[in-house]
Amino acid sequence: MAAKKPTNWWLWTKMLLGGAAICVGGPAFTYWLTPTDEELFQKYNPELQKRSLERRFEREKEFDDFVNKLKEYSKSDKPIWTVQAEAEEKERQQRAQVQKSLELAEEIKARKEAMRREAGLAPEK
User: Fold this and answer.
1) Cα 97 to Cα 91: distance, rounded to the nearest angstrom
2) H-type helices in 34-79, by residue range?
3) DSSP-assigned letter for residue 123
4) 63-83 pLDDT, tens per residue?
5) Residue 9: closest CA among 17, 24, 1
6) Chain centroid to CA 19: how far?
């Protein structure tokens, strides 16, 4: 029977401590280096700060709408991207239908005007 190879405890210690240093130290270093939102905002020039403050409410509303739509989409059993594509298609169809009804209303208005002109009546305002 061959002799059992001795365990290299020094190698295992280095690997364990080095791995722990990488796993804990890397994210901690990144967190330490990353500037906060306030620090970034202070580095903006005054014009950008003003524009950012003006559009803040708009961006927050857009984000809230986006999150609410995602919550609604996630209630379905289908994947979110499928539900989102279906919702976009439905919205596109609704816009097309509204556009069609507006065109129809314009056409009806033009016909009424033509009929009034033929009858010799004053145009409707």
Assistant:
1) 10
2) 37-43, 46-74
3) P
4) 999 999 999 999 989 998 999
5) 17
6) 36
